[in-house]
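Repro case for the chain-ordering regression, as requested:
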Amino acid sequence: MDKENLKPQEPTPPEPINDSKFINIYLVPILAVVTALILGAFIIWWVGGNPLLAYKGLLQGAFGSVRALSETTVWASPYIFAGLAVAVGFKGGLFNIGGEGQLAFGAVAASWAGYALPGIFHAQIPPILHILLSVGIGMLAGAIWGGIPGYLKAKTGAHEVINTIMMNYIALNLTSFLLNGPMKDPSPSNVIARTPLIAESARIPAIFPNYRFHWGFILALALAFGVWWLLWKTRLGFEIRTTGLNPDAAKYAGIDVAKTIVIAMSLSGALAGLAGAIEVTALNYRHELGFSSGYGFDAIAIALLGKNHPLGVVLASLLFAAMRNGATKMQFLTQIPVDIISIIQALILLFVSADAIVRYIYRIRTPQERVVYTRGWGK
Amino acid sequence: MDTVLEVKGITKKFPGVLANDHVDFNLRKGEIHALLGENGAGKSTLMNIIYGLTSPDDGEILINGKATHFHSPKDAIACGIGMVHQHFMLVPVFTVAENIMLGSEKLRNGVLDIVQVNKDLKELSTQYGLEIDPTSLVHDLPVGIQQRVEIIKALYRKAEILILDEPTAVLTPQEVEDLFIIIRKLVDQGISVIFITHKLKEVLSIADRITVMRGGKVIATDDPKQTNEQALASQMVGRTVILKVDKTPAKPGDVVLSVKDLHVQDDRKIETVRGVSFEVRKGEILGIAGVQGNGQTELAEAMTGLRHAISGEIRIQDQNVFNHPPRDLVEKGMGHIPEDRQKHGFVMQYPISDNLVLCSYYVSPFCRRGVLQNSAIGTNAENLIKRFDIRTPSPYVPTSKLSGGNQQKVIVARELSRNIKFLVANQPTRGLDVGSIEYIHHEIVQMRDEGIGVVLISAELDEIMALSDRIAVMYHGEIVAILPADKVTREELGLMMAGSLKPEVSTI
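-- result from build under test --
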């Protein structure tokens, strides 16, 4: 029989619960964080620590001083870029696990552009241009690295999860080869797998002396707005979202689904590449093996926690950044290993993914109870 | 006669909706009791309660006079209730016997005792006159026989009360006759049947009693001998309904769409459209009749650019559009009401306003220089909601929250509001209530009168007969005949749809 049989035809159905209100969307993520922190407190107590002291240390480490705040934003920038990357993919119905590889490749490419371009052109490059070139080349590298699995998905149906994972291996091992070989810093004292320092002209200047807070964080916030605008206000965004939510309807609507998939994956890759490029041009001024600390993977958790919305991604990034940054101070104060933070982050992710647990604990009704037992027409 | 099942004062509330409002219903031993109602009348909810799928907020269920409470379908089955869902719950690659014992497997020494099951089935078949080969694979069987498997499955679990949910929706007219013979046999053997449907003709021919539901309430219980289609329809809808579509003779103009020798494969690479040719003129409705699964789906998809055809020719006016992408067809004047509205018709999560521009979001005034113009999209939505009477509290409600009829109105509004030359309407009223059907039929005829060529694909003979100016019958991937609608009877069409009547001359 009918599927929508729960509503009578007349009169006009009642105003449904507004699922798009901020509180309704983020209630579960917020409660997931709270629950994870409570459970984390138990774990800290169980290993012999004082949870209150530990969390106090965490807060101090993250927000307790100007330097702490600055460091938190340093952590947050790559998280925001990479989180946006994953979110854009998700909106297009694509699960980009390849952020880590795209980010590494973006960083490598940006470093190369940063130290090698002046030599190639046999000239100084004006700073603004050189910065734009380095960042652009980093983004392009990420876009290509994300676009390849997108193309494979669009043309052959190969699943992007598998292919982005594979592309991660290629990127990470290729990076390792490049940094140990052709692109290795040639200075005599160097034994580390790293590139030479990029030219002065390719460096994004610091904003405040003595603080590592950099333009990347501001750019990340601006880009979060930009991604929101793109996804919800433009034709391309409409095409990406339609393809992500219902590829059949997208095809019906005349959208070139294959093209949109490639664009969404390239865009996602470009954002991840930008994360790497900014780390190079604004912070480290070179790429070093193992600098990433898993930004590309944390980004998946961040996008999930932020419900794939740019604002959510920013908030989730700040949370993750604060936890990562505060962890060291916590360990210093309470001798509780920083790894406890990884456990809490894992718990957050667990509760966000298995939101039924959170809904059960806090007795939250699912947004719209749809009890449909007999399968009906139109399915 | 004994009452085998009685429900009293059943009330079930879903958020914001009273799905069942103090419903009383009873079933006597050996009777066929039809439950008639529009979508959303509460039939499904009531049956789900009786079958133990959901529990009522209030009221009681009496089986053979004894109050019972079901926690799950298992309890209902134990009380002798069996249900045949509209969409069969069978495993296609299993044999009939395997499907039937699924969930109540017989074991001997730890292995499945298929021999015993086969023997039991033979007995059941002879007792109820349901012929079946227990060893054949379900996916090799025609739909009518698959349904028979479902019925035997219920009987195998010792069902004495059989609930049939829209059992005729997927059957040919001939298969419907066979089903009715089976149902009458079952009833003679003491089985009691609840027959859920929204088809008026059927209830009048099969039911012993008819209960009509509307808006979660039982409106009336009628004797089929003392009522008629008109009266039942009015009870269902709550107002007088015009069952006959009012239309003047067509004034066909130039050919707007022509299809020549079209060949199309389905997903399994089986050729399901085998050399189809037809023409549609401006201002006429060409009905394509046929039982589901005779190639209509692939034909419609190939015509609308959703599926690549192997060979043939498709022309819009004089332009060749064979295997052109959907956008190109849309820009050349195609409107398309897709068969599966939830799959192709719209994005469920989108607000109504976005779905109303799903095919035109990229052109002015809805989009300028790549940026969506929300005010234009909103105004468009408000206009169409008013013009097409879409029942919604606001244009920004997710489309998934609308009833089926209103969802279909969103699609119809979108397609008909564009500047189209022809319309492919594939099952445009499937699963809709009488009120919405009436409305959509009226709109389609009006489009015809405005000079649009319409291809109407439908498995409902009534719909084909009511709307078409010419009727093409599709059987087994071919068009076996194209006839003027007034020169053919229901019975002839039914036979042609079943492939048993080959017309000697087909008039084009």
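Ordering looks correct now. Chain A has 14 helices and no strands.
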